[in-house]
Amino acid sequence: MEPVGVSTEMALLSNILAAYSFITENPERAALYFVSGVCIGLILTLLALVLKVSCQTDCKQSPGKKPPREPESDSDSSDSEDDSDTTSDLSARRHRRFERTLNMNVFTSAEELERAQRLEERERIIREIWMNGQPDIPGTRSLNRYY
């Protein structure tokens, strides 16, 4: 059993040395492979998160959903009806989700709402002061002296 363990350790050591020699001979290519791998991993992670978030509410069955229909003998007419039902269900679910986000109360207390309003007012005042305090740029003035 020991020769098998030694051969796998030697193979691992040989592979590590081969990888090290490749990196030292081709640093740009090794960096390109590394960055490409990281980018592909980030893209796959982002795709998985987007699918999870978008399917989280769509994949849940609502309690008031109609029971599935029995397959009919006229497949042409039932296919078109099924397609319209699924698209209308999907659009209705999206519309309900959009309404839920609109009706969601962002501020939990009146104090937070007042603080946010004061902050917006302060930002507006600072923006006005900044815009009024800026010197005029020479090219923007009118050429008419009696303006």
Give the topology, please.
Layout: H1 2-25, H2 27-58, H3 75-103, H4 110-133
Helix pairs in contact: 1-2
Notes on the protein architecture:
It is a single chain. With 147 residues, the chain is an all-alpha fold. 74% of the residues lie in helices and 0% in strands. The chain has 4 helices and no strands. The protein has helices at residues 2-25, 27-58, 75-103, 110-133. Helix 1 (2-25) crosses helix 2 (27-58). The longest helix is centred in the N-terminal third of the chain and has 32 residues, at 27-58. The protein is flat. The termini are far apart.
Can you summarize the main beta sheet? none
Mean pLDDT: 76
Structural class: mainly alpha
First-residue to last-residue Cα separation? 99 Å
Low-confidence region ranges: none
Tell me the helix content. Answer: over 70%
- Number of distinct beta strands: 0
Question: What order do the helices and strands follow?
Answer: HHHH
What's the shape?
A: flat
Any idea what the radius of gyration is? 32 Å
| Helix run count | 4
β-strand amount: under 5%
Short note summarizing the structure:
It contains four helices and no strands. It has 147 residues and is mostly helical.
